[in-house]
Amino acid sequence: MNGIFQVSEAISLALHGMGILALAGKRMRIREMAKAVEASEAHMAKVFQRLVRAGLVGSVRGPAGGFELLKKPSEISLYVVYRAIEGDLRPKSCVLGLSRCPFRECMFGDFPNRVYEEFTDHLKSRSLGELVGFEDETSGRGWIDGSQGNAQDNNHRQG
C-alpha cells in the first residue's frame, strides 16, 4: 500500500542531490550523487539539468567537472527546488481529479486544501541549509559566493 503522502521521484532526487552537494561542500559528479541515493544516473542527470536551467546549480564539464550549488544552502528554499522540478504547486480540489463530485459534498471536506496549504508553507519556510543542518549564513561549503573560482576554492578562502 502506498503512503498517504507522495512526491515524485524527480523532486526527491532534486532535494536529496542538492542536500548531498551541500554536505559534500564540493563539486560532484552525477555518478557519485546517483550512487549515494541509489538512483539511475540518467534520471539524476535529467533532474540536475532542470536545476541548472533554474539557476540553482552550476555545471562544469571536463575532468574536474560536475555540479555545484550556486547559492548558499541557507538561501535556497525547498519551495524553489520544488518549483524548478514540478512547476507551481496548485491545490487539488478533488483527490480523484474529478471535475464534479458524485456526492453532495466531498467526503474529505477541506482536508486536501489544508494539506496543500501546510505543505506549501513548509516548503517555503525551510531552506536547503536547514535540511542538511547548515542554518547560519557561514555554513554550506558548496556554494559560490559571487567571487571567482569554484566551490573548492571558496573552501580555502573561508578557512
TrEMBL record:
Keyword Transmembrane helix on entry: yes
GO molecular function: DNA-binding transcription factor activity
Keyword Transmembrane (UniProt): yes
Chain residue ranges for the region called Disordered: 139-159
InterPro entries on file: TR_Rrf2-type_CS (IPR030489), Tscrpt_reg_Rrf2 (IPR000944), WH-like_DNA-bd_sf (IPR036388), WH_DNA-bd_sf (IPR036390)
A cellular component annotation (GO) from this entry: cytosol
PROSITE patterns: HTH_RRF2_1, HTH_RRF2_2
TM stretches of this protein: 6-25
Keyword set, alphabetical order: Membrane, Transmembrane, Transmembrane helix
Top-rank taxon, per record: Bacteria
NCBIfam families: rrf2_super
UniProt-recorded name of the protein: Transcriptional regulator, BadM/Rrf2 family
Species of provenance: Dethiosulfovibrio peptidovorans DSM 11002
Lineage: Bacteria, Thermotogati, Synergistota, Synergistia, Synergistales
